[in-house]
Design a protein that fits this description.
Layout (H helix, E strand, L loop, with lengths): L18 E4 L8 H8 L17 H11 L15 E4 L4 H4 L6 H11 L17
Parallel strand pairs: 1-2
Helix pairs in contact: 2-4
């Protein structure tokens, strides 16, 4: 664990992790980081539309995706990543929101080849 702003100053630039756990604050904007992030060609490997300025939690999820360990079949050193993040659900499940492109990217990458085939299936819940 390192104190700092991981959105604009990655303390682990060349590291990938097997396990990622987060409970980002809800309703926190990333207005202060916007000027820096807008100068980058992409955000941590994601070049699509970024989440709304008031959705720092979803931007943090995109940061987490950039830290996923690659999965390689039959390679014990590349087991993929396991991730748990507390969300209120709306950014991921609301397809009409302006952040749906980044939410779909994060969801697709969280459930694709970056995880072990022995992972527990995700349950989809809607409220």
């Amino acid at each position: 664990m390192v104190l700092g702003n991981t959105l604009i100053d990655d303390p682990f630039p060349d590291q990938r992790f097997d396990y990622l756990l987060a409970n980002p604050p809800f309703g926190v904007d990333w207005k202060a980081e916007k000027k820096v992030i807008d100068r980058w060609p992409n955000f941590r490997g994601y070049s699509g539309k970024l989440p709304r300025i008031n959705d720092g939690a979803l931007l943090f999820l995109l940061y987490m995706v950039s830290k996923f360990q690659d999965y390689q079949t039959s390679n014990r050193d590349k087991p993929g990543s396991r991730t748990a993040i507390v969300f209120n659900g709306s950014p991921i499940s609301t397809s009409k929101s302006s952040c749906s492109a980044s939410a779909k990217f994060a969801s697709r990458n969280a459930s694709s080849t970056k995880k072990s085939p022995t992972s527990t299936p995700r349950r989809s819940t809607t409220t």
